[in-house]
Amino acid sequence: MKKYLKFVAIAPLFMAVLCEEDLDNCGFESPEAYTLNVENTATTYAANETIWLNAETSSMLVDFCNDTETPELVTDRELFIDGLFILKLNNQTDLNAEVFTDATINFDIGELFTFNTCAESTNYVPELTDDNQFYQYRLGVSVNTPGDYCMVSAYSNAFNLNTENNAQIFEAYNTLNDEIKFESCNTVFTRTGTDGHYFFTIE
Questions:
Q1: Long-range contacts of residues 61-67, Cβ cutoff 8 Å, at least 24 apart
Q2: What top-level branch of life does the organism fall under (predicted)?
């Protein structure tokens, strides 16, 4: 009888732990990574020339709060937010890039998203396609200051690896063993290698 009473006493605590673990896992799965496409690839652009980018990802996600594992349409587009850093390259020995914040951004699809905290990246939310199958965005980036630049994802996305990314531009700035290091909002960020980024020159 005493053993039975002990089990009854601890059973609610055990169930509470299980429920807490279930709540921790509740929510939508992460969206599929964006692959950023440069529509007008070039090594060199004129000042104020627009570089057009586009990307899309599935709008269907699994909701871990439900018993079913069937993906469902997600209407909260902020779950699909994306962003990028526009970096001006330099050959310093501690940080070999700096965030360039004077670029002009134009949206053809999607719109700018602003955080309430410090954010020097350009962030944006996509739009749902007419058939509800994808979230997509299309934006133009233009820079008017001459120099060598790099665009890197602010999240875990990457530029299309099948597209020429002008990695040779980075050779003159490779002072940190194939790492791109830059500071934003008092935090140092690192991107390793040149794959998944897009380099270009403004003349």
A1: 61/28, 61/29, 61/31, 62/28, 62/29, 63/27, 63/28, 63/29, 64/25, 64/26, 64/27, 64/28, 64/29, 65/26, 65/27
A2: Bacteria
Give the global pTM: 0.84
Angle at 194 between CA 102 and CA 87, to 5 degrees: 10
Which residues lie closer than 8 Å to 118 by C-beta, 6 or more apart? 185, 186
Q: For residue range 54-89, what is the model confidence (pLDDT) as tens digits?
A: 999 999 998 878 777 789 999 999 999 999 999 999
Residue 15 domain-assigned?
Answer: no
pLDDT of residue 68: 75
Interior angle at CA 153, CA 147 and CA 158, nearest 5: 110
Q: What are the tens digits of pLDDT across the range 154-203? A: 999 999 999 999 999 999 999 999 999 999 999 999 999 999 999 999 99
Domain count, the chain: 1
C-alpha span between 12 and 94 (Å, rounded): 55
Q: Report yes or no on 20 lying in a domain.
A: no
Distance (Å, whole) CA 181 – CA 193? 11
CA distance 103 to 142: 6
